[in-house]
Amino acid sequence: MALLTNKTVKGRVRRMENVAVIDEAKAAETALDPLRAQILARLVDTPASAATLAADLDLPRQRVGYHLGKLAEQGLVVEVETVRHGGLTERRFAATARSFVLSPGALGSAGADPSRIRDRLSAGYLLALAGRAITEVGALMRGAAQAGKQVPTLSIDTELRFSSPDQRSRFVDELNAAVLDLVARYHEESAPDGRDYRLVVLSHPRPTEESP
């Protein structure tokens, strides 16, 4: 999964990922365990020790400490501070990111793959495209972090309301034409120093409280 830089600095301000991608089966299994997910959620905003978490969750300290260790093994939490109280040492942990997303890569060959879906207009194909983006961008984030760089990305998120299916269809045709025109004008197949980018446009009905 995407790891932090400076994550092991204790007692000081540390850098924190906004989103970390979990792309290994063992890390996914650890994060999806109900109790460990509770512990992880509590450590996103506020560092805490096993004793503090045990009191919050009304669980034995040893049990919480065991699960903290498993989360730390997978890079989901990290020790950020050590505090001494008399003869006792309190180790405080924090999540390594503000939020986490599960990559289809964690499922191996069972993960969603757009190339295996024929219906390009299906919701399944849209989800497979989104999953591929998570997998690819997650890998790019890891490489960029190791090199001390940022991943150049572009995201557009907006909402619109169609008055009818016919209007929606016309919008799709115009959007498709506009994208193809832009690609034709900017794509440089033989550019010696160029870099390939993937462009994906997604659209789906916005869920409402009444949605099933």
Summarize the helices and strands and which ones pair or pack.
Layout: E1 17-22, H1 25-32, H2 34-45, E2 48-49, H3 50-57, H4 61-73, E3 77-85, E4 88-95, E5 97-102, H5 123-147, H6 165-186
Helix pairs in contact: 2-4, 3-4
Give the strand order of the largest sheet, numbering strands 1, 2, ... along the chain. 2-4-3
Please state the structural category: alpha+beta
Query: How much of the sequence is in beta strands?
Result: 5-15%
The overall pLDDT, averaged over residues, is 89
- Choose one word for the global shape: elongated
Portion of residues within helices:
40-55%
User: What would you give as the CATH superfamily of the domain at 17-101?
Assistant: Winged helix-like DNA-binding domain superfamily/Winged helix DNA-binding domain
Largest sheet: 3 strands, antiparallel
The level 1 CATH classification of the domain at 17-101 is: Mainly Alpha
Using the 3D structure, state the CATH architecture of the domain at 17-101: Orthogonal Bundle
Q: Count of helices?
A: 6
Per DSSP E runs of 2 or more residues, the count of β-strands stands at 5
Secondary-structure element pattern, one letter each: EHHEHHEEEHH
Stretches where pLDDT falls below 50 for ≥5 residues? 1-14
Distance between the termini: 33 Å
Radius of gyration, CA atoms, in whole angstroms: 22 Å
CATH topology term of the domain at 17-101: Arc Repressor Mutant, subunit A
